[in-house]
Amino acid sequence: MDRRSFFKKASLVGLGVLVSKFPVWSNTVFAWDKPVHNIPEEKGLSGQWFDSLYEKGKKITYRKSKNELRYIGMPVGGLHSGTVYIGGDGRLWLWQIFNTAYDGEREGIEPKNVQWNNGKELVTVRPRDGSAYIEPAIADNLRSMEQGFAISTLVDGKHVIKELRENHWDEVAFEATYPTCRITYSSIDFPLDVVLVAYSPFIPLDQDNSSLPLTTIHIELQNKGGAPVDVTVTGWMENGVHKGRKDFDTVHKRSFLAEHANTQVLLFSCDQVPTQAMEAGDHGSMAFTCIDLEAQPTTRLEEWPVKPQEVKADRVDSTVDFSDLQVGAFTVKRTIKAKATSQISYAISWYFNNPHPKLKLHLKDAQSGYWYGARFSNAAEVINYYLNNREKLESETMAWQQTWNDTTLPYWFMDRTFVNIGTLATANTMRFASGRFWGWEGVGACAGTCTHVWQYGQSMGRIFPDLERNLREVTDLGVGFQSDTGAIIFRAEYEKRPAIDGQAGVILRFYRDHQMSSDSEFLKRNWPKLKKAVQFVLDQDKNKDGMTDTPMENTLDAVWEGEIAWIVGLCLAAIQAAALMAKEVGDKTFQKLCLEYVRKGSENMDSKLFNGEYYIHRPDMLQGRKMLGSYNTCHIDQVYGQAWCRQVDMPGVNRQENVVSALKALWKYNFTMDVGPYIKTHLGGRPYALAGEGGMVMNTNPKNEDKAYGDNTTWQLGYFHECMSGFEHQVAAHMMAEGMVDESLTLTRVIHDRHHAAKRNPFNEIECSDHYARAMASYGTFISACGFSYHGPKGQIGFAPKLGKADFKAPFTTAKGWGTYAQKRKTKGVCQCTLTLKYGQLMLNEFHLGDADDLSLNKKQLIVKQNERSIELVELKRTDGRLILSFKKQVMLKNGDTLTIQWL
Q1: pTM of the shown model
Q2: What range(s) does the Glycosyl-hydrolase family 116 N-terminal domain occupy (predicted)?
């Protein structure tokens, strides 16, 4: 793909130049073919540092007083409905809803190239190479539509107006609790504080109600004083249909009132649109409403919502020309009693159902528009649906937000491990009218829901499992499936080749998605095709030693030769998952075949690919190191297969002591609290971590070998010198699962710190373009921290917390329900576990508790209750370090129910 041309243009520099500049060091530090490994083994971290990682802390809050608001862009639209950001001061920006993003045309959220000094020279960085990491988009520069709120009241007899914008208040505080945010505005000399809460309906397991092209804004006015206050609130929104068009002389913007669910709604559209323009990406409709019976609408403002002379002194852009705009508004007047509060809610919807024309050329599914376009006819119907279902949509959204934050785990950790699910609420993903889910790698860059990128993500499979199952059936085993060979084309319609890591990842995700199902129907109906996909992996082992060795595309965009630890291990994990699925469908012959393959492959991987410290890449016997590879270097994904085993609660494919050794090697050789010295001496990588920032480098040469990466150091070598957050999250999740909690938290924390709002948008982890899909691997670290296991068809759920197990509380999701798990184990031999369901239902046959060797197997010392009703056990046993409680009758938990398990 074209993304890789960055390296071709910006990586190598002539050795002659290096020698002339650094004649003494040219053969050591700065030589491209042999830069000295310079990551310190000692990380310089104190006990106090590690202790701080475990502290609960406070909810993540960014402040005006700390200059932390300008980069913030939290997605506040529904899933797959484009990108609408809310900024740090509460104004909406970006509005990437007009179907403009497409590979090679308009990539990322801000399609600009920037210059970056890589330590040796200035190189050009494009959006797909990390330009937004170097120079993050600033909200005020991309505020493409007029929208906002103004608060007007008398202060000491004078008419004072404050808009909800940064420069109008002494302090603005943005509290990030995705999928919601809470913004507080305060000034010493103003009688009111204002709180704004924004979100689009977001309900785990309910992808339909979480996919509305709509955002809601809820304003609370708080009277600080001892006397009543008369206040006027005005909210305004511009008609964005055919936004900025200068080529249609006859187009007439239209704003009119309609009533929906006893509420007045401003509808925005265009009349007299030429036929050819009806296919344009910005052709559609918008709607705006204030959910207040006393709200007074204005269909088109002729001047600013408040008198210009009253606001000009402190409004930056008070010279806005309204002649070319159509801005509608709602005004509400209130009297707020002393020390009282008052609430007003608004909603904005949009409807632009024309996917990019090039998308339609490639994808048959795109030709009929989007899922929301099939469900609704215009933005008015979206608003109408919201108004008629508002109580359910808002209560369930807030129930999830409260459930997610009702935890003993640190707030910063909960924020960073969950926030990347917001990728689904950006222009990076689409859901077509046919129901098909589809995504870029990053916004507008690298098409086809790429198997070897998307397979790293863990959040969608746990939060919206139906979307993952759709991807398995419609794309991976549908349009991307080769029935004759079992190969899965890694970009479906956009490619003709499979990728070996992507193929294995599909199989592993299939097992996870089966576990996140309520029954076995998903697995059974897809088993024939899935079995062929598994056989394809088996067939790539040319010498039949259990270690795949057929040269094939992988996520580092090169065809590597030989036996590569991370690919071998990933394939072994996939085959083991296939064995477990074969057992469930009753295919004993194939199960036996898979298990034998895993047995042989695991033995050979441990004996032949482990160098005594970490896993390596054994060269092809004939080719040697002729081609690019990782060889005897320390590669970030070397035990990725084992990491997947931990995510889906199946036995590992490698020796435990080897795995821990490999993870310790990654910490020792690849992790640094300052990547600056490394990227200055190892040229060619893209800027996803900068000098002064911590990170884990993709691939290092700790032995300082000559030609460590092979004879043909092609442009892909640049990847080795980068810090890509999706890979880092994968390692953090695995470290957590293997008990390396300090290291896992540290790695997660440095990623979190790299995305602090003082530096860049905390809601946008960047790799190849913005909101990169691989970063959704972050949720895996949360799964590991809980020691969570679940198998819906078997009715099994389990927990083995890795931190704070004496007093632990965290959310969980299952096939049809979600809620909170809590345990208290402050005294040896005494334990209380509580499952509280907050949504849906949960069917259980077994409960598993890990790290419980001190708990008795005597049923008489155990009390199990559903609410107040006793639950009888048929068996209580200890297996592989966990306690398993088998219920005599299936337990059915419904919303509000509690299951309590207590050892006395």
Answers
A1: 0.95
A2: 73-392
